[in-house]
Amino acid sequence: MDRAQKEKLVDELGQIFESSGVVVVAHYAGLTVAEMQDLRGRMRASGASVRVAKNRLAKIALEGKPCAGMGELLTGMTVLSYSEDPVAAAKVAEDFAKDNKKFEILGGAMGETILDRAGVEAVSKMPSREELIASIVGCIGAPASNIAGAIGAPASNIASILSTIEERGEAA
Predict the structure, then answer these.
(1) What is the number of other CB atoms lying within 10 angstroms of the CB of residue 56?
(2) What is the per-residue pLDDT for 111?
(3) Which residue positions in the chain have pLDDT lower than 50?
(4) 41, 67, 79, 146: which could form a disulfide with 28 (CB 3.0–4.6 Å)?
């Protein structure tokens, strides 16, 4: 890799560290190519990504970033999992770690907050952005449907009473 390629990679990593909702660092020594492809596929399906980079270049990219403290985690064969959604990459990494003992989560970062192993696990248990939006919409939608039902019910009651009165008047 020549100097220009390294500078480009450092810029890309810097953008990842700045724009990601969460970055998870893990050791991947011993994983087969098929297992790494499985990890990449799972990440892609949830809107997250995986990046393997030299630790030295990643540490350079971290300089001056809010999550610069994460540099301590970059030792050995590390892989970075990241997503804009603050939960997606952590969830997939946790699920993958359960299935693959060779994939060892070290920690990560969520904005300026540096996460240890337990922190990544806690983030993975949080509801995702889509789950939160669905629950909020459900809370907002329920009262509106109740109001519509309450407003519509008296009108139907009045209509049935009027039709009953009309039928009695015709019968008499």
Answers:
(1) 11
(2) 84
(3) none
(4) 79
Tokens of 161: 């009473």
Contact call for residues 107 and 120 (beta carbons, < 8 A): yes
- Length reported for the chain: 172
Please name every residue paired with 51 in a beta bridge, in sequence order, or none if there are none: 80
Q: Pick the closest to residue 54 from 35, 37, 79 (CA basis).
A: 79
Sheet with 104-110: strands ordered across: 48-51, 78-83, 22-27, 104-110, 113-115
HSE-CB for 52 with a 13 A CA cutoff: 12
Pairing status of strand 48-51 against strand 113-115: unpaired
Least Cα distance to 25 among 108, 97, 134 occurs for 108
